[in-house]
Amino acid sequence: MNLLLDLDLERVLVLVREHVGPHAGKLGPSTRAADVRGWDSVAMVNLLFALEETFGVEFTSAQMERANGVPMLLKLLQETRSA
Amino acid sequence: MTITFPTPAFDTHPLLLARRAARRVKWAVFQYRNAANIRLLSQFESLGDNCEFASLQKGFGVDLPGMFKWTETSVRMLTDTLGDNLAGGDDIANLKLETNTHDGEYLLHHRLYKANSHTFARIALDDPDKVLQREHRRLILLKRKFLEDVQAGRRIYVFRSLRPVSEDQAADLHRALRRKGPNTLLWIRAAREPGHVGRVERRADGLMVAEIDTLATYEDGMTYTSRHWLPILRKARALAHDVRVSSGMAA
Fold this sequence. Notes:
The structure holds two protein chains of two kinds. Chain A is built from four helices and no strands. Chain B has one domain. In chain B, helix 3 runs parallel beside helix 5. The longest helix of chain B is centred in the first third of the chain and has 28 residues. The radius of gyration of chain B is 22 Å and the shape is globular. At the A-B interface, helix 2 and helix 3 of A face helix 4 of B.
């Protein structure tokens, strides 16, 4: 279970870096969007789309609005899988 | 083991302690007000015209994904596309990047909407094919989100217009929104008389009209200048809430 979460975290961080851009700086499991330069709603939508493609999930509107950083993205992935 | 350091005498001076306490209270009041503003602004979604309302929200830290928030829409375009369930809104054949812009940003031109949107991508730095692909993907997600939201009636939609919009046109847009779900439209227009500034009126179930002193121009849409925005939104929220309570729709 932990291995699965670690793998998710790794893939999420790769996608965050790809979509937020080179200014993202140091990212980790507790990084919040508000603390990262360039991680605005435009980057978030691109990231959510990439997460849907990569993990084969679909987020609801309410879930998209809750996405505010790495911890929440991991939580949303878990939610969509268990739904 | 805890190490304690002796506190210098000046740190315990009553005046200094009082000043610190006052600063803490001031900060707490600021945080409280800011949190209230964030809650308020999160209940609204921009239908465009220009980016003023999205900029206002972003200025207060509210930056939710929105289909039209960065788009120069018109009331007619919105009414038509809502009637068609946003058909073609996410079709890449309708999208084109404008590169002849004054500030070096790619603008996304939507052929069907006859409207431009910000991409926030730089012509000097970003590959146009990648930008177009990215914008297309974004629209797919935003269209799905928008349709889900209008069916649920989750937001108060804000349409501000510097261009003249007639009462009939606003009513048409309101009807188009209501056909999708229990939506509320807040139409913001320039005040016709100075005494009307800040006024919010309910015109129909789910339609409000507000008058404001100044609206950002299309050239200067990434700004907001009026101090009346927040009071107007508070009044609109209260009006919308009263209607929801009386019709048993409140959460």
